[in-house]
């Protein structure tokens, strides 16, 4: 097996660690004791030991720093970032998956990945993953905006010419 170089256009160019803050809330149905959803991110957060470090809590809910994930920006996805930045407010998509253990928390969801691309976020919504959006902090907006300004290349749209489906002289397909 030879190591082929990755084309430069596919290489990730910019990264930023983001702490994922997850809310754990007492379930309101008979089918789930607890529900989990991301509520915010912490730009530049370091690793969290142990995962699930409690930040604050109230009656029937808690917020914890569940994981630190790396936001990766790619040259090939600047159109998805531009679309996101045009929204009010821009968002980050946090993808969560069931945790490995089935401890006292039952069906715990853990953060899997985070993206600023509207296209990638939409792609994760097909399947069993839980995808939620959180507001994009100002530091992340600045990073994504600078990245798009530096790397985005408009690709002109060319309408394809349709092939004829039948022969005009013979009048048949």
Strands in their spatial order, largest beta sheet: 2-1-4-3
Q: Helicity, in percent? A: 10-25%
SSE string: EEEEHEEHEH
What is the CA-CA span between the terminal residues?
49 Å
Radius of gyration: 22 Å
- Count of individual helical segments: 3
| Poorly predicted ranges | none
- The fraction of residues assigned to DSSP E strands is 35-45%
Tally the structural domains. Answer: 1
Structural class: alpha+beta
The overall pLDDT average reads: 82
Number of strands: 7
> How would you sum up the global shape?
globular
Largest sheet properties = 4 strands, antiparallel
Brief write-up:
With about 170 residues, this protein is α+β, with helices and mostly antiparallel strands. It has helices at about 80-85, 120-125, 140-150; strands at about 10-30, 30-45, 55-60, 60-75, 90-100, 110-115, 130-135. β1 (about 10-30) and β2 form a beta hairpin.
Description:
By secondary structure, this protein is of the alpha+beta class. The chain is built from three helices and seven strands, in the order E-E-E-E-H-E-E-H-E-H. 17% of the residues lie in helices and 41% in strands. The strands form two sheets. A four-stranded antiparallel sheet has the order 2-1-4-3. A hairpin with a 2-residue loop joins strand 1 (12-29) and strand 2 (32-43). The radius of gyration is 22 Å and the shape is globular. The model has no long low-confidence stretch (mean pLDDT 82). This is DUF3305 domain-containing protein.
């Amino acid at each position: 097996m030879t190591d082929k170089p990755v084309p430069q256009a596919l290489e990730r160019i910019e990264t930023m660690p983001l702490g994922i803050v997850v809310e754990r809330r007492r379930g309101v149905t008979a089918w789930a004791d607890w529900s989990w959803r991301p509520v915010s991110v912490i730009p530049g957060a370091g690793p969290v030991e142990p995962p699930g470090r409690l930040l604050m809590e109230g009656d029937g809910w808690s917020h914890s720093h569940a994981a630190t994930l790396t936001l990766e920006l790619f040259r090939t996805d600047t159109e998805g970032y531009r679309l996101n930045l045009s929204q009010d407010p821009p968002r980050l998509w946090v993808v969560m998956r069931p945790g490995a253990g089935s401890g006292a928390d039952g069906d715990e969801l853990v953060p899997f990945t985070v993206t600023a691309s509207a296209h990638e976020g939409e792609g994760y919504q097909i399947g069993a993953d839980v995808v939620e959006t959180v507001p994009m902090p100002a530091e992340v907006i600045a990073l994504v905006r600078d990245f798009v300004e530096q790397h985005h290349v408009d690709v002109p749209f060319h309408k394809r010419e349709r092939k004829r489906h039948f022969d005009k002289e013979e009048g048949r397909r």
